[in-house]
Amino acid sequence: MHVFKKPARWLAAAACGLLAAAVLPVGHAGAAAAGAGGGAPDGGSPRIPGRYLHQQLDWQPCTGGSLECASMSVPRDWYHPDSGPSLTIAVSRHRAADPARRRGVLMMAAGGPGASGLPRPARLASYSPKLADAYDIVGFDQRGVGASTKVVCADQDAVDAMFGGVADLRDRSAAAVRRTFDRARDFVRDCERNSGGLLPYITTDQAVHDMDLYRALLGEEKISYYGPSYATFLGAYYATEFPRRVERAVLDSNIDFTGDWQSFLTGQPMSFQRRFEQDFLPWLAKNDATYHRGRTPGEAQASYERLRAALHDRPLDVEGTVITPNHLDAAATNALYNADQFADLASLLGFLEHPEQAPAETRKAVAGRLKHLMSADFVADYFAVTCGDTPWNRDSRYWVRESAQATRTHPLAGARELTYAAVCANWPRSKAPRIKVTGEGLPPVLMLNSKNDPATYYEAAVRAHRGLAGSRLVTVEGGDHGQFQNRNACVDAHVEGYLLDGTLPSDDTTCPAARG
Prior knowledge:
The chain is of the alpha/beta class. The chain has a domain at 29-56 and 66-141 and 203-258 and 441-511: Rossmann fold (3-Layer(aba) Sandwich), CATH 3.40.50. 44% of the residues lie in helices and 12% in strands. It has helices at 9-16, 29-33, 50-53, 120-127, 129-134, 156-163, 174-194, 204-217, 230-241, 261-265, 268-286, 288-291, 297-313, 325-335, 342-353, 360-370, 376-389, 396-409, 411-414, 417-425, 458-467, 489-501, and strands at residues 60-61, 68-74, 87-94, 104-108, 135-140, 223-229, 246-254, 316-318, 321-323, 446-450, 472-476, 509-511. Helix 7 packs across helix 20 and helix 18 (396-409) packs antiparallel against helix 20. The longest helix is centred in the middle third of the chain and has 21 residues, at 174-194. The protein is globular.
């Protein structure tokens, strides 16, 4: 039996605290800014008042880092810019280390939706000094997120009850289903009541207009772009609505931005289950001498289900955090994003089976890490975007049937499908325009995706690639989520070669998995 001598890496990090997630004179930006209103989906150009086009960004050192930070004002509604109060978008910049070699601006965004993009230029600049030499690397918190104007929904207790509560999300009884829909309706009601009328404007389409104003205020005719996960959706929409403003674009770990959120998100239970069964369980069995979870993948899976059943029958109170089967499944899905986290999940399984053998610091770390499975701030923006960007089926009977099938066939993430879908099925009907991504008018786009990515699954990336004319897809063996900045020399060479020199593979190609 594995006895804890010290906290696993993520447990130790939890004990220390974890992350969730104004400029120089505009100069020649006037000409560039004049195009900031172009690209309306109907072919028209929203009229942009001068107070937005002519604002100056006042760069100041960011708190506790190497970046410069500023803020800009944007219309709440880009199609009716004089209606409603302005929003604030927080932006950041890492200036090119070598001004003589500077080739432009590399804009980047964060995933989620709901994660903060403000600190990310610092990490990219540290990881790739070549890009940091050649580009001003800029980021931002998307509308609805972080230091920008935030959308507010339910409080943290309500979010904890939705995703973690003592009721097992695999429970398909009539009472459990009714409780799920009741909580979803309450959540949506709280969003409408607390958001101050902001919900209809927290969409990807509105955000890409913010991005183009940012480009204009930086004085750039064109930008290059890097975005992972949800930021592939954001980047594809930006490139579609403003194709003449894109020089080069890298889309890493792709959502199917040619389709809708419903079809994409209902595909995730399959890919999380695949990653669990094809990658994690074989790894766990291979390391049975350390973790004692079973010598074969089948034995390892059986041990997981036994532990889950035990938590179902008797939830575990660890330092005031009540750990249920939902907490176990959430910890497992989170760990599947990167193989570096497999050992942490394996350690957690041992802890949950014998918590009395763990030192006090580990118990406190586990309690802190699992206390809130989803932050209230994150889910507010997540649902605003995913429910508002594209239409959802609003038939509750359909979702009861669909989620029951997902729970049977892909239980690891399928059990939570009804919770997510019930929110979007009750969301206010959106007027966001449908954006058809085709790649028309764009330079070739470099796309990256691993085969067993649990969150942005390969099949969706292939669909997006086929729909984005002229794109090149680099397929990475393995299953990590996020290929660039993942210590993969093959991927890094493709990305840096493209962004620095415009070098692309002549056709789709492959890279081996990253080595730890």
